[in-house]
Amino acid sequence: xxxxxxxxxxxxxxxxxxxxxxxxxxxxxxxxxxxxxxxxxxxxxxxxxxxxxxxxxxxxxxxxxxxxxxxxxxxxxxxxxxxxxxxxxxxxxxxxxxxxxxxxxxxxxxxxxxxxxxxxxxxxxxxxxxxxxxxxxxxxxxxxxxxxxxxxxxxxxxxxxxxxxxxxxxxxxxxxxxxxxxxxxxxxxxxxxxxxxxxxxxxxxxxxxxxxxxxxxxxxxxxxxxxxxxxxxxxxxxxxxxxxxxxxxxxxxxxxxxxxxxxxxxxxxxxxxxxxxxxxxxxxxxxxxxxxxxxxxxxxxxxxxxxxxxxxxxxxxxxxxxxxxxxxxxxxxxxxxxxxxxxxxxxxxxxxxxxxxxxxxxxxxxxxxxxxxxxxxxxxxxxxxxxxxxxxxxxxxxxxxxxxxxxxxxxxxxxxxxxxxxxxxxxxxxxxxxxxxx
Length: 438
Fold this sequence. Notes:
By secondary structure, this protein is of the alpha/beta class. 44% of the residues lie in helices and 14% in strands.
C-alpha cells in the first residue's frame, strides 16, 4: 500500500485499526472520532451539469497536488469543474463499501483487477465501454484486461502503475562491496553480512498493516509460482496447503533480519532508515522515492527484483499495482463524468500526473517517457518485461478477507513467527466463511 492498504499506496498513518470494527463485505463500522465517508454534494442536491464530484483517496501531498493539476487542465479544456472530496487513504479503503452503497461521488479513485471487479459484480459501479471506445488505442492488452469486470465490460480507467521491488542505496552497496542478490541463498547471506556491518538489513514498517502483504506476495509467488498465488488470492487454493507453509518458512528465515518493532512503525518512518543509510534494503513500491526529498539521495536510490526462490518460477512475476478511476452506480452528472474519464485516459493527463509524481510510471503505452528518471525507466522495463503481473494482496483478493483476516494475521506472524500452523488453520477457516458469503 494499501497497500495499500496498497493497497497500499500513499497511505497516511491511520487511526488505530482497533477503532475500526469491520463488518462483512469490507464495510466498516465507525469507531471513535472517524468521520464517515460521504459524497461532496450530499443527497438531494440538484446536479450541476458543469460539475463532476470525485471521491479521492489521494491524501498525501504529492499525489493530491498532481491530481489537482490534472483537474485544472481538464476544466480549461472542457469548462467542467471537478469537485474533489479527499479522505485519508486508509479511511477511504476501510469505508469504501458503505460509501458506494450510499450516495457516492460521480467518479472515485480505485484500483485495477479483483478490487474493481468485486464492486462491478455488486452493481456498485457503472460500465464505461463508451469511454473505452475513445481511449482503447492508448493502452496495451494487459491494461485492458485489468480494466474489465467479470462480465467483460469496462469499469476502470488506469492512470499509473509501479512495481514492488527491493530498494537500496548504491553508495551503501559500493562502500561495503555488496552485490545484488538474485537467489534466496544470496539474499540470506547478504542480510547476515549487513547485520555484521551494523546495518538494519531490511527496513520494515507495518503499522498500517498493508506492507506485510507485499512481503508475503513476493515470497509466495517466488516459492509457488503465479498460478498458485492467484488461486490462493481468489479463495480457490487452501491456506493449509504445504506450499503456503513453505512460504511462511522462508519468511521466518528472513524475518530476524527485518527492522524490529515493525507493527508500531509507519512505512514512511521505515523509509527514513533507508534515507539515513541505517538500513541496507527495503521491500516496497517505487512510491518509496517520495521520501527521498534531497536530490543527491534520490539519485543514489536503486532497486532490484525480489530474488529467485524456485528456478521453475525464476523472477517471472512482478507485483505492479495499477491505480485509476471508476464511475459510481448512479452518477448525478453522467455525461460530464464520462468526459472526465475520457480525459483521464489520455497520455496528456498521465503526463501531468507523472511530472508531479515521478515515483510511478504511465499505464498507457502512448505516454511520453522522455522525461523519465533512471528509476522510472527501470520500473517501466521491469513491468513491460514481466511474464506475469499481480496487483497486491489487498487488490488480488476480496477486500473484506484481506482487511479482516490477512492484515491482523500477518501482523500476528510478524510479532511472533512461531505457531504458523495454527495461524494458517485459522486463516483457512475464516476464508471459507467469507468466500461463501457471496
